[in-house]
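Field notebook, page 410. I keep forgetting to write these up properly, so this time I am using the form the group agreed on. The chain and the ligand, flavin-adenine dinucleotide, are recorded exactly as supplied. Prediction of the bound pose follows.
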Amino acid sequence: MKNILILGAGTAGTIMANKLARALPSAQWRITVVDRDNDHAYQPGFLFVPFHGYEPADLIRSRRKTLDARATFREALIERIEPDKNRVHLKGGDVLPYDFLIIATGTQPTPSQNEGMLGDEWHKSVGEFYTLEGCTKLQHQLDNFKGGRLVVNIAEMPIKCPVAPLEFAFLAESYFRAKGLRDKVEIDYVTPLPSAFTKPKAAELLGDFLDKRRIKLEADFSLARVEQAEKKIVSWDEREIPYDLLVTVPTNMGDPVIGASGIGDEFNYVPTDKHTLLSSVAPNIFAIGDATDLPSSKAGSVAHFQADVLIENVLSVIAGRAPEAKFDGHANCFIESGDGKALLIDFSYDVEPLPGTYPLPLIGPMSLLKETRLNHLGKLMFKWVYWNMLLPARPMPVGHQFSMTGKAIG
Ligand SMILES: Cc1cc2nc3c(=O)[nH]c(=O)nc-3n(C[C@H](O)[C@H](O)[C@H](O)COP(=O)(O)OP(=O)(O)OC[C@H]3O[C@@H](n4cnc5c(N)ncnc54)[C@H](O)[C@@H]3O)c2cc1C
């Protein structure tokens, strides 16, 4: 019996386990998936909880139930990987051997990395929506916010779902307008990026959106510290921005197990080949999703496209062949813009988001880089797709490869 061990039963680990369970004969292969708990959270839903769009309980399902019965689920904290001994240590002393390892441990907001972030005001006048606990508390923080300066801040890049803070700012603007409080709330969007987003065309459009909604953009702001007593954030070049409510995305980092195993970069991300998804740690270790150091977006859509590539490459390597399938950096995501509308962007390592229609030329039905009601409905529909199509690894109407079909050039 040979062992494939998957670390992390989030988006990427679950898809991979389900694909492998179908592809490999269970008499010869044992597939084991490890995660710290049994609660799989639909993270894109965190964005809506502060605005009462979802309640936290709407977003959780049993990890065990999302996994194919042929995969074994182990609920335990992973403490250390020993690549030279092909084994993984769990909290409590158990050791799991592997023939092939897939690292899918994701990335997490790590507020301890930001000076002053974790003071007495954490989850009070300083909020966040990147964890289930954070978005739940932020619901109450927003309910109690009757006016003043709301500052939405990204501490440092890269972060997972890089559009989520922008979406939060748009939704907050529309939420306060609907509550009749908009004139009492000033909203600042404070980012370390030189503009509203990482990619030029989308950044220009999203910058206009901020302007039209009277959300002030403060660019090139790298967070040095939070001064909770003074209610202000300070950049490394000593710019100061006061707040009444700070909604922050703290520094995102890969799991400490990557650092403890001595295999990661300074952010605990796993060095990974950007096309084959083979790690540079060892020839029998692959990495997928947010855990990698790749220049692709850290997003569920990316984990899904990568899984289509990785399954081919794992099966090739198992069969003694070279991994030939190539991930092209394909990512797409809906961007909520408030008032029941959203945009959609679709891009890759080489091509930035362009206008057009998706997935079909002219027909769409989704519009790229354009605010529509249908895109918003697509974003809401994605929750169903996530649980019923994406995680079970059912065939999807869109392929993993980026395509110029439907894109308008020039
Ligand atoms: C607010 C928000 C909004 C988002 N919106 C979108 C969106 O609209 N579209 C989109 O495509 N993506 C979105 N994302 C991003 C998306 O959720 C992630 O990119 C995706 O979940 C990544 O999958 P992953 O498997 O790499 O990591 P995860 O799904 O985070 O899974 C990692 C798993 O590893 C486990 N793990 C890690 N370390 C250990 C350890 N030491 N021991 C045991 N278990 C461990 C964790 O418990 C976790 O279950 C959003 C994320 C957030 C936070």
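OBSERVATIONS:
- The longest strand covers residues 331-338.
- The radius of gyration is 21 Å.
FOLLOW-UP: compare against the apo run.
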